[in-house]
Known about the structure:
With 123 residues, the chain is mainly α. The protein has helices spanning 15-27, 32-36, 43-51, 60-65, 69-93, 96-122.
Amino acid sequence: MKPGGVVAPAGAPSWRRACVRAAATLWLPTLLPVLTGALADCGHCATSFWRSLPVVPGLLAPVAMGLDDAAFFVAGGAATLALFGVVVLALVEAPRWLAVAAQAAVALLSGLTALGYAHALRM
């Protein structure tokens, strides 16, 4: 039983474990361009990718809004935090099937965004 008398779904992880799982779900797929060698022969591209790695999962939002410069990374960071929050809440509060579906969708989005960003850096 959680504080306030709310009963957690069966098998729901603790908040700490949910945060670790959400971080893994969000940032491990962003390593796909590194693992596939997409940035191997471009040192500047790899440096830019590693420096912006914390906001890579949420980069579709500022691209869709047409932002640039600092606003681009602020919006990307906000979108990344929103994705992180959604996954954590899904892991703690939602039924298991919905939590797994949310993790799969966010991991796919994060991986494809990272590959697209790596391709854009190489252009």
